[in-house]
User: Fold these one by one.
Assistant:
Number 1:
Amino acid sequence: MTDVSVIIPAKGEGCRLEHTLDSIDEQQFVGTVEVIVVACGDATIEVAKRHAVVDCALEETEPASTGTATDATERGPGQARNRGVRTATGNILLFTDADTVVPPTWIQDHYRHYLTPSVVGVGGPLEPLGCQLRHRLCFRVLSDWWYRVSWPVGFVQQPGPNCSVRRSAFEKVDGFDESLPFLEDTDLSLRLRSAGVLVYDRTCPVRTATRRQRRVGYLGLFITYFFGYLAYFCPGLSPADSYF
């Protein structure tokens, strides 16, 4: 088996995906790595197929919208990530997004934690692409300090753009819940607790786009996540696809 599989869901990204793949091509990891892109959209598929670092480009078709829950499920990133895992051969599964740039030591920083047999998952902080002070401050609070506080009390949340999972544990908990179009990464993290130890590595950040923050604002995102968490933890409810 391959040491590491990097899986990237990419929908309508194009040039952003190219920057992501360029950063993965610069990794300093000495083991075996395969890169799998689950791509949707003509420009995105083209980038995935022609980039030298990609070992497998899986094409996704945009579902016709009928306003049903099924449409939301088919569009969710959990479904794309699970599809990538089914093709992957790696013992360690790394996930990032197509609007994210990872540092040259990203794979090695995650992989070293799995030398401890009890570790089943690793997550790290997010930083903004760009240098605006408000984004740097808000990301530090919401995508780093929040994790440092919540993980020790059991509320583990591996962020989708910067997480990894031991394959055996991923299969034990049945992967991402494809019925969740929102908070699917948090849901996987919480279920992984039954399989072993999850590590938050604050020294392993990735830089990701601020499109969502610019579109709805940080207050809007806070409200979105607040009601999303309420829906997730209330029996019989589920976060709605309209959140993103």
Number 2:
Amino acid sequence: MTKQPDKYDDPIYVADPEKEKQAKRLHFMVSIIRLLGIAILMLGIAIALGRLADIPAAVGYVLIILGLAQTWVMPFVMVRTFVKQQVAEEAEKEAADEKIL
């Protein structure tokens, strides 16, 4: 009868509070960006369908494209930038550790 190790007893993973805060901020920002993108998309659809007075349909189509880009493309760019930054910081940290040894 061996005791199963707890999930948090693993010496490989140690949570860094600063990185956790950064990840939470990123998640919040991505959520806000997506919600604003949906709002821009809905505004563009309303303008393109002529529901708002005296605004050309071309403006609505541009807003639809911007809203879709903000909803689908911007979150990927933000997350990719965040991950690249984290990888670069880890590489610098490992390089600094190798110099010390």
Number 3:
Amino acid sequence: MNWKLAFLVALIAIPGPVAISWLALPLLIDIESLTIPLQTLQIATALQSIVLVVLASGIGALLSAKVGLRAPVLSALASGGGVRAAIGPQLLPGVIGGFLGAAVIIGFYEFSPSELAVLQEKGSIPFAARVLYGGITEEVLIRWGLMTILVWAGWRTLQRASAVPSDTIVWLGIGISALVFGVSHVPSVVAGLGGVSGMVVAYITFGNAIFGIIAGYLFWRYGLEAAISAHVLAHVLAYAIRG
């Protein structure tokens, strides 16, 4: 395993759990109904996410190169290579993905069911939490960790005789990880509303999965940094347009 790469990936992702626990969690739960101190819950939530970040960082560092997935900029930093040369190919795909992602986010809110509109009125997720957790941590967890292990598992299970996984296997990894990405947004909505209909669960899942497919493709074709750049830019643009 490339331990330096795993460390760098974890390093950029760890601020996200801290931001989401301290800035967003109080907005998503009924504080008055808590049976434990809010700070205790925040610490436990942050630690849980940090453990997952460390695991995802290690999985990606261990398996990504074996299935043709990469983090060019972070790998260059870890090896002392040409960082500037690694950044260039990430920029345009990241910008295009960011604009597509912003359109998905804005459309998601504009056409959301009335149940979600009620949640939006309660208060939005702070900008810093959106960027740090949504833009960076989620990409490390879902793309670098989950998508990588899905592609590796599909390759080793279904195509053991092949030197590299086929495009079909990679697309399966992209699709499944995108669905998991969508489902992962459901619990916070349930916590904020106290329960939702099946239609809302489907809307949240598939609405978020659309961007998951975009980010997964960027990770596959260009690298983790392209997916992160797109996700961060999507939140920046969406926040600038609709707040």
